Amino acid sequence: MAITAKADKRINANLTKYQNILKVAKDRDLNESDTVVIISDMMSDIFGYDKYLEVTSELAVKGTWCDLAIKIEGKFQFIIECKSIGTTLKDNHLRQVVDYGAKLGVPWVALTNGIDWEIYRIKFEQPISYDLVCSFNMLEVSAKKEDDLEKIFVLCKGGLSKDHRENFYEKTQCVNRFVVGGLILSEPVLSAIKRELRKFADGVKVDNDEIEKIIKAEVLKREILEGDDAVKTLAKIKRFYSKQNKQKEAANSAAKQTAPSEEPAPATETPSENQPS
Q: Strand (E) positions, the chain?
């Protein structure tokens, strides 16, 4: 999805400037408070928010404080947890910002030290869970690369009105290594491979189980098949095909019930020998 011309112009005008600022800040190992000042300026100059009206600092969250929040027309759009520029982002930092978002009922949260940015979407279920939407290194992104601009635009004000972040999130959930790996192991794809193998190998006999074993052992990486993300994705794909099969069966059943029954043709009497022809 293309970003807005306004956002593109703003990012091109300010990205290099802030990359240089961040390099100096890292060399000086600025503390968290000073890092937050830079991030707040970035929220205005790169991401397009009004620094005085739309960027809130030191937001109270049930007895504790969140570093930054984006609030537009009374509604929170992002909760942002900031760490000092020399701090490596860790799982406990992530749990912290997810907890803030969950308590405030805000699904979109970001974790950053100014250089590394991680954007998450919270799923309000029991228990609370979340998905990584995208991550990027502000020193490495380029205003000339569409993929980089698309990630930056997820955080931009212009991306809110165009619903870019939701569309981007849906894309990341559907187009990733776990989904592709799961689809490769699905029954329709395995059957398609079997058909092509029979053509290629002149009718060689092979079944789906054999193909699945080869793919799992020798084609796909283990990380695509193991772990929580892989297990959840495979289960989701199975539910999808199960639902499709049930819908197909229901459609076939309905078609049979509504199809006109064929009535037997009326029997013709054969004239007897005593009857005149």
A: 55-61, 64-72, 75-82, 108-112, 116-123, 129-137
